[in-house]
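Long-time lurker, first post. I've been practising inverse folding by hand and with some scripts of my own, and I keep getting stuck on stretches where the structure tokens seem ambiguous. Below is the full token string for one chain I'm working on. Before anyone asks, I'm not after the true native sequence, just a reasonable design that respects the backbone. If someone could post their per-position residues I'd love to compare against what I wrote down in my notebook.
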């Protein structure tokens, strides 16, 4: 049966859940502010090329969060405009709680939650995983970018996470299937799993991320768009800079 968690229990089990991730980690929280220990664990998982997804609602990130996420290329972030749920899950355990992934909540609020183990409650774990996948499907994947703030203008210090929002459909450069256009993530989930085993950014791929046409090895992770489409791709993404 699920295990009840108080504020301390949620904080403890959340950190352990992140640390023990073997394959896939999903963090769902309307508000996002990461303490240094959580950042260290996420950075470690990212280096190991684990599949990390973060879904949040409030896109007005502080400069520190914006810049940190902007430098974590492997972490995929999505925005869900009506998100209120808080759930943290890897491949073998989950926490459903009142606690946002927000440093203030972890330090000052009275929280509670439940801990679910796949081994102990497989049916409940499966139901939770299904709802997490639904939220991933309805969320808009975005790319948080590094923000430059001028010291002479204090108002600019309230950085807002910029995001690549394009209605243009992209294509997986390995399998050619339709995906959101994102030059920092030009793979489908299947393609990413295959590529991340070696992580060679120059490995020749089969398709153009912009047009979906065969690229005959002229595209790769670091250059996912055929040269003839570079100008059009630049109009869709501020991150396009090859």
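-- Answer (accepted) --
I ran through it position by position. Result:
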């Amino acid at each position: 049966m699920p295990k009840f968690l108080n504020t301390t229990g949620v904080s403890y089990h959340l950190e352990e859940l992140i640390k023990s991730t073997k394959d896939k980690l999903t963090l769902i929280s309307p508000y996002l502010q990461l303490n240094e220990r959580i950042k260290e664990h996420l950075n470690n998982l990212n280096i190991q090329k684990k599949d990390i997804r973060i879904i949040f609602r409030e896109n007005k990130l502080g400069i520190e969060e914006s810049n940190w996420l902007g430098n974590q290329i492997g972490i995929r972030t999505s925005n869900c405009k009506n998100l209120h749920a808080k759930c943290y899950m890897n491949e073998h355990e989950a926490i459903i709680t009142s606690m946002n992934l927000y440093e203030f909540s972890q330090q000052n609020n009275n929280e509670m939650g439940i801990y679910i183990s796949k081994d102990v409650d497989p049916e409940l774990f499966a139901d939770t995983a299904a709802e997490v996948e639904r939220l991933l499907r309805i969320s808009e994947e975005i790319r948080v970018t590094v923000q430059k703030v001028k010291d002479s203008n204090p108002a600019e210090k309230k950085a807002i996470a910029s995001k690549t929002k394009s209605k243009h459909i992209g294509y997986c450069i390995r399998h050619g299937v339709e995906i959101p256009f994102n030059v920092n993530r030009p793979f489908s989930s299947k393609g990413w799993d295959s590529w991340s085993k070696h992580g060679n950014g120059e490995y020749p791929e089969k398709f153009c991320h912009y047009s979906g046409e065969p690229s005959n090895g002229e595209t790769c992770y670091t250059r996912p768009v055929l040269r003839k489409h570079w100008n059009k791709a630049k109009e869709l993404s501020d991150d396009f800079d090859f």
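A couple of notes from the structure itself: The radius of gyration is 19 Å. Confidence is low (pLDDT under 50) at residues 155-166. Happy to go over any region you disagree with.
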